[in-house]
What we know:
The structure holds two protein chains of two kinds. By secondary structure, chain A is mainly alpha-helical. In chain A, 64% of the residues lie in helices and 5% in strands. Chain A has nine helices and three strands. Chain A has helices spanning 3-11, 18-28, 37-49, 70-81, 93-103, 109-133, 140-170, 180-185, 187-191; strands spanning 16-17, 53-55, 65-68. By secondary structure, chain B is an alpha/beta fold. Chain B has a single domain, classed as P-loop containing nucleotide triphosphate hydrolases (Rossmann fold). Helix content of chain B is 32%, strand content 25%. Chain B has helices at 46-53, 76-86, 102-112, 117-130, 146-158, 176-191, 203-206; strands at residues 4-13, 20-30, 35-39, 61-66, 69-70, 87-90, 164-168, 195-199, 211-216, 219-224. In chain B, strands 6-7-8-3-9-10 form a six-stranded mixed beta sheet, sandwiched between helices. A four-stranded antiparallel beta sheet of chain B has the order 2-1-4-5, with helices on one face. In chain B, strand 7 (164-168), helix 6 (176-191) and strand 8 form a beta-alpha-beta unit. In chain B, helix 4 crosses helix 5. Chain B is globular. The relative contact order of chain B is 0.19. Mean pLDDT of chain B is 87; it is low at 229-241. Classes of the chains: A mainly alpha, B alpha/beta. The A-B interface holds A 114-115, 117-122, 124-129, 132, 150-151, 153-154, 157-158, 161, 164-165, 191-192 and B 21, 24, 39, 41, 184, 187, 202-204, 206-210, 212, 214, 219, 221-225, 227.
Amino acid sequence: MSIKHGLLALLERGPMYGYQLRSAFEESTGGTWPLNIGQVYTTLGRLERDDMVRPLPEHDGGQRSYEITDHGRAELTIWFATPVSHADRPRDELAIKLALALTTPGVDAGAVLQSQRTATMRTLQEYTRLKISATKPADLPWRLVIDAMLFQAEAEIRWLDHCETSLIRHAPAPLITGAPSDADILPEAIRR
Amino acid sequence: MSILELRQVHRTHGNGDVAVHALAGINLTISPGELVAVMGPSGSGKSTLLNLAGGLDRPTSGEVLVEGQVLGNLNRRQLAGLRRHSIGYVFQDLNLLPSLTAGENVSLPLELDGLSVRKARRQAIAALHEVGLEDLLNRFPDDMSGGQQQRVAIARALVGDRRLVLADEPTGALDSVTGESVLRLLRARVDAGAAGVLVTHEARHAGWADRVVFLKDGVVVDTSGPLSQPEDLLPSVGAQR
């Protein structure tokens, strides 16, 4: 997704100027995607160049509003009609990190996995809390954005569970360095 | 005072070489207003933990306390009484009695506990009201949807003055929105002062908890949360005596 399509969707509601667009954008993404005003104006500039928005005369306060053009509207329709491609998303750092953890000597992949699971679980708890507090009917768009993040976090935890099971099944037999008598002396320690 | 406390709880099935350590030294304290989720792979000891907390099973060693009472010190009758009036159970399979109406299903444990039929019915109506199903008072389980049945089961678990709610995959096969309403109810009850334990495979459901405990091979391997009031992490042992 691009800021471009987000702004077009907002302008479809009616003309707005830069600061209004920024706050409307942040509101509709539940504050999960902060924008700076520079990004908004750069994007508006490109949209104007591509004939997707047009500036209106300045207000009394010197604010210049923009409105969407027919060309912009057509672009927006195509955007809504096109599914998001996985290839457009950035590479998954976590998957790469776990793959490296498995092959790097001295790294406990199980521990990497568990610490990620706990961190993701905490994120999930925090999102759920946000969601519980959003109870008004007007909060529905925001709730759906939170749900998207919730389901993504859940998918990540499921995937981690799956990795862990695979790790247990396919782990090479541990190297036993101690003499057998050690095991007889320290049954309690081993059980832990 | 904590509502549920597990002190160095071990549960071993079998003896000698074939012994299985279902739980190996669990310590867990749950206070009023706290919902704790227990997660872990199959065989990690989740269900054993829930059965011990609910007095349905006894630890091999260690102690389980519910509202300050050591379950091991109670006789059968006392334990049954405690289970009836202090602990609410919500299981995956709803266990509603098909020959009883929603209202009768909810009031049955109260009547077993010696309450008059009239009082029990009044409390059952209040409990059904809490889950938004007052209108289904006289409906039989077979004439209700899965979501409605599960809410009745929750009303039954919460009826009266139960302060410990134990839930094992309570959203079962419900769709995600209906399942969420079940969790919302559980959360609301806990926020009103009960303590809850939620055993689940689903991370999204565990997200409703204040704390998530990860079990593996009968031990706690990690904990996520609590999200606020970190001082709750430090149980004041002296104050509980």
